[in-house]
């Protein structure tokens, strides 16, 4: 099978020749990869089954000076949404400065310099990019954007959650602005021919949702559904992937209802992948399941290999599985464990 055929078989709940997989690294772990292999790009080096396309970077950064402090620390970066990222305590971690922290009315929000994501120059390359990857035999996906996360990055977590209760008109205006952009990107990705649309928001903690299921259903389910519908209006067959770390069991039926058919990452420290497979495996595929809080940093290479085989046997016997660590790999993961995971997935077909 080609990589694309392999992933499409798995997502169609047919058994592929081997289980498709992916992985990604934090910046410090990327340095380890480059030192160990002499290569620059893990996707090319490991010849991963999945390739991604997306909008081009902006050429017209907004003026956020009135929304951010003047004395930003050295090393601070500002993204196209105006969120400032100060250097954190270690590695790649940052601390955010939220540009909408003092924006409290819809009128003030309307004056904000949102990014030019819908500009044609940012998406016109997509059809050619997808075609090249398809011609090379790869499965292609693209990310439509966050909704909840983008809103609280800009407003601040506490302020935004408070808005949902005490300032709903502001929360609604901010979310709808974000969703309109995501719908545009989703349509263009679908038009370009991607095999799968990536979506997602971290709405789970280790033990529960960050908000009540009813609040999620009121505020985020219809908006996510709108983004999915925008893509499916162009290509009804497109797969839709949803990411949330943590425990999100109460809303999995809702995600299925609005069109999600691939769930990531099924964090095994929070959700039992076998239970998810048993309850929902006829309508969704599992993408992830390899614990980055447990087996990857703390197992031996032999244990990682056996854990990987076990997941393939229990979760991928009839397709419906793409293996991946449940998050980007941190520098506490031994390099030998990375190799054990990759080599096992590539070679193990007894399932």
Distance between the termini: 17 Å
For the largest beta sheet, what order do the strands appear in spatially?
1-5-6-7-8-9-10
Overall pLDDT confidence:
97
List SSEs in N-to-C order.
HHHEEEEHHEHHHEHHEHEHEHHEH
Global morphology: globular
Radius of gyration: 20 Å
Structural class: alpha/beta
Number of helices: 15
The low-confidence runs, each spanning 5 or more residues with pLDDT under 50, are none
Major sheet: 7 strands, parallel
Query: What percent of residues are in strands?
Result: 5-15%
Q: Got a strand count?
A: 10
Helical fraction equals 40-55%
What's the structural blueprint in terms of helices and strands?
Elements: H1 3-11, H2 27-37, H3 42-45, E1 50-53, E2 77-78, E3 84-87, E4 94-97, H4 106-110, H5 126-135, E5 139-143, H6 148-155, H7 157-166, H8 168-192, E6 196-200, H9 213-219, H10 221-234, E7 239-243, H11 252-257, E8 262-264, H12 273-280, E9 285-290, H13 295-298, H14 301-315, E10 321-325, H15 335-347
Parallel strand pairs: 1-5, 5-6, 6-7, 7-8, 8-9, 9-10
Antiparallel strand pairs: 2-3, 3-4
């Amino acid at each position: 099978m080609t990589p694309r055929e392999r992933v499409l078989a798995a997502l169609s709940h047919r058994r592929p020749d081997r289980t498709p997989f992916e992985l990604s690294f934090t910046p410090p772990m990327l340095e380890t990869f480059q030192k160990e292999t002499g290569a620059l790009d893990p996707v090319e080096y490991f010849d991963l089954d999945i390739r991604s396309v997306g909008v081009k970077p902006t050429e017209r950064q907004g003026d956020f000076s009135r929304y951010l402090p003047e004395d930003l620390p050295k090393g601070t970066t500002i993204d196209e949404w105006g969120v400032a990222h100060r250097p954190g305590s270690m590695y790649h971690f940052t601390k955010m400065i939220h540009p909408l922290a003092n924006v409290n009315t819809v009128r003030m929000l309307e004056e904000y310099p949102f990014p030019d994501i819908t500009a044609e120059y940012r998406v016109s390359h997509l059809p050619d990019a997808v075609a090249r990857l398809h011609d090379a035999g790869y499965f292609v996906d693209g990310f439509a954007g966050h909704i909840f996360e983008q809103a609280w990055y800009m407003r601040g977590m506490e302020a935004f959650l408070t808005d949902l209760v005490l300032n709903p008109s502001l929360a609604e205006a901010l979310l709808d602005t974000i969703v309109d952009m995501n719908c545009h990107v989703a349509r263009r990705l679908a038009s370009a021919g991607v095999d799968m649309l990536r979506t997602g928001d971290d709405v789970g903690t280790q033990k529960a949702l960050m908000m009540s299921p009813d609040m999620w259903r009121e505020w985020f389910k219809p908006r996510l559904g709108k983004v999915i519908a925008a893509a499916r209006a162009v290509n009804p067959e497109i797969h839709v992937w949803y990411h949330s770390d943590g425990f999100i069991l109460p809303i999995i039926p809702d995600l299925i209802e609005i069109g999600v058919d691939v769930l990531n990452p099924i964090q095994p420290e929070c959700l039992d992948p076998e239970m998810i497979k048993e309850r929902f495996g006829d309508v969704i595929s599992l993408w992830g399941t390899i614990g980055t809080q447990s087996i990857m940093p703390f197992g031996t290479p032999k244990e990682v290999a056996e854990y990987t085989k076990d997941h393939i046997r229990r979760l991928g016997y009839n397709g419906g599985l793409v293996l991946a660590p449940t998050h980007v790999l941190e520098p506490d993961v031994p390099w030998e464990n990375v190799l054990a995971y990759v080599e096992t997935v590539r070679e193990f077909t007894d399932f």
